[in-house]
UniProtKB/TrEMBL annotation:
Protein's name according to its UniProt entry: Immunity protein 7
InterPro entries the record matches: Imm7 (IPR028965)
Top-rank taxon, per record: Bacteria
One Pfam family from the record: Imm7
Length: 133
């Protein structure tokens, strides 16, 4: 199983004041990325209190192409709108190195980095009981 949950605060720059016209253009670029992805799970881009936010979530059976594309989506948003920031939590039980752990992809200042999770990992026994018998 490949489970993911994430959010991004889309910002043109890391400065305090984004140019509204350029920010709207960047958001439309992100909308085009979402359209290219297709429809699966939660892909919700909306303006809240004057700011654009993206929320994603899903649970495909395997990482496959979709999982790779979701992680790449964060990287591409960082290129389009380098002031954006957010987190993507991923659990991939087929990951040879981390089958029992969530991984966190952090988007900050246009760069995505991968980190260990200490809040929900290890999945067993933190979230789930060990298999019996």
């Amino acid at each position: 199983m490949f489970e993911y949950h994430g959010w991004v605060n889309i910002r043109e720059t890391a400065g305090l004041d984004d140019d509204e016209g350029r920010l709207r253009s960047r958001v439309e670029d992100v909308r085009r990325l979402l359209a290219e992805l297709g429809e699966y799970g939660l892909l919700d881009l909306r303006w809240l209190n004057g700011f654009p936010f993206l929320h994603v979530a899903g649970v495909p059976n395997h990482r496959g192409e979709w999982g790779t594309r979701i992680i790449d989506l964060f990287r591409r948003i960082g290129e389009i709108a380098p002031g954006s920031f957010g987190l993507l939590y991923v659990w991939d039980d087929e990951d040879a190195e981390h089958p029992n752990a969530f991984r966190v992809f952090r988007l900050v200042r246009g760069t995505v980095t991968e980190h260990a999770d200490s809040l929900l990992s290890p999945l067993v026994p933190t979230v789930e009981d060990a298999a019996q018998g």
